[in-house]
Amino acid sequence: MSFSRAEAFAPATVANLGVGFDILGLALQGLGDRAIVEFRDEPEIVIADIQGDGGQLPREPEQNVASVSARAFLDHIGEKRGLKIELIKGLPLSSGLGSSAASAVVAVLALNKLVGEPFTREELLPFCLEGEALVSGYHADNVAPCLLGGIVLVAGITLDAIQPLPVPANMHIALVTPDFPVPTNEARAILPGQVPLASMIHQTGRVAQLVDALHRGDLEALGAAMEGDAVIEPARACLTPSLDEVRSAAKQAGAIAVFIGGAGPTLCAVCNSAEIARRAAAAMECVYSEAKMDCVAQYTQVDRRGAMVLRAE
C-alpha cells in the first residue's frame, strides 16, 4: 500500500561513548527530528521548509542531508517523481547529538513508508549513509542507532557489521549542551593521524571492557571504560568548554561517568537512576551558568525503538 504523505521521527544519538571512536553509538529517548514527505509530479526534490535550524541548513537539495538520502532511495527504486520535504529540527546543529544522522534517517524512513515499505528498517541504512557522508563521511555510529535504536556496535557500513548490544535496565543519561557549536569536520581535523602502539592496546582493551560491562549490566565498569579514552578525548578537550568542571560537578551529584557526546560539545553523564540523572543535569547546567555560557541540560534514557513512522495518509 502506498501513501501520498508520510511523517516520521528520528531520535538523537550519541556516538563513540568515550573510547569507541566511530564504532559505538546509542539512541536517546525524547529528542529528535521530524520530517514530512510528499510526492510531487516534477522530478526534482524540493526542501519546502526547515524549522528549528535558525536558517543555517542548506535548502539546495544537493547539499541537504535529508534530500541527498532521499535521492539515493528514489534512484535505487527507479522512481521518477520528485519529493517535497519539510524538516522539523528538534536537535541543535553541531552539538554531538547526531543532528545530520537524524535528518538523513527521518527523510528515508518517511519515504519508505510513502512507497509502501519495500525495505526493512535495516535495509534503509545505505540510503541514510549517503546523506550522512555529506557531513562526516561514510560511518554509521550515529545513523545505525538512530535508525535501529538501542546501543549499537558499528564495525563497518554494511548490515553484517552492525551489532546491537544490551542496554542496562538502570542506565540513565544526563546531558548538557553548551551554546558552542563544534562542526564535525573541525573535531575530526584536530585528531592525531597516528597513535602509539601502547595507546592502541590501551584503547582496544577499554572498548572490550565496555562491551563486557554492557553484557553484564555493570554500570560502574561501563563508566570506567568510557572514561578510559586515551586518544580522542585528550585531543578534543580543547573544543569542549569546562570539561573537567562539568565532570566533577556531575560526579558530585552522583553520576558514574562523563564523556563527550560524539564530536561534542554535548557532555553525557551515565547515572543509575532518574533522580541522580536529574541532579547531574542540574549540576552540569550550573557550571555553564556560572561561566556565563548558555546551555541546555536534560536527562533521559536509551531509546530502544529507534526511528519511527508517525503517520501516513
Summarize the structure.
The protein is α+β, with helices and mostly antiparallel strands. It has helices spanning 65-77, 99-114, 125-136, 143-148, 184-189, 197-216, 219-226, 232-236, 243-252, 274-290; strands at residues 5-15, 24-40, 45-51, 82-88, 151-154, 162-165, 172-178, 257-260, 267-271, 295-301, 308-312. It folds into two domains: 5-165, Ribosomal Protein S5, domain 2; 172-301, Alpha-Beta Plaits (2-Layer Sandwich).
Give an overview of the whole structure.
With 313 residues, the chain is α+β, with helices and mostly antiparallel strands. The chain contains ten helices and eleven strands. The strands form two sheets. Strands 1, 2, 3, 4, 5, 6 and 11 form a seven-stranded mixed beta sheet that branches. Strands 8-9-7-10 form a four-stranded antiparallel beta sheet, sandwiched between helices. A hairpin with an 8-residue loop joins strand 1 (5-15) and strand 2. Helix 1 (65-77) runs parallel beside helix 2, helix 1 packs antiparallel against helix 3 (125-136) and helix 2 (99-114) runs antiparallel to helix 3. The radius of gyration is 19 Å and the shape is globular.
